[in-house]
Amino acid sequence: MTALMKNPRVMKRAQKEVRTLVGEKCFVDEDDIQKLTYMKALVKESMRLYPASPLLIPRETLQKCNIDGYEIPTKTVVFANAWAIGRDPESGKPRRVHA
Q1: What CA–CA distance (Å, rounded) separates 73 from 86?
Q2: pLDDT tens per residue across span 45-55
Q3: Rounded to an integer, what is the distance from CA 18 to the centroid of its chain?
Q4: pLDDT: which is higher, 88 or 38
Q5: Burial of 86 (0-12, 13-18, 19+ CB in 10 A)
Q6: Which of 18, 59, 72, 95 has a CA positioned 20 to 30 A from the CA of residue 30?
Q7: Taking a C-beta distance cutoff of 8 angstroms, is the pair 80, 42 a contact?
Q8: Which of 48, 21, 25 shows the shortest CA–CA distance to 13?
Q9: pTM attached to this predicted model
Q10: How far is CA 42 from CA 13, 24, 69, 74, 93, in A?
Q11: Rg (CA), the chain
């Protein structure tokens, strides 16, 4: 919701999609969800930008390796930072997943 509040243009487009689909019904049916393509793109983009868990499941290296100049010994526990992986230096773009 915060991301939508920061981008009124995107919020208006999402509202228009829902209002066009729902019309007089006043609620969204389960069957309607597949038709809300822009809204699904917004959800995916939000999940990319704000993952539920910022760190992925820890893994243990099977062998020694070198990552970007850093020596990682065998049996080292490593974490992948999902939050950093999903960052875009420019901005969130629902159209990225709304193709």
Answers
A1: 27
A2: 888 888 888 88
A3: 20
A4: 38
A5: middle
A6: 95
A7: no
A8: 21
A9: 0.64
A10: 11, 24, 37, 40, 8
A11: 19
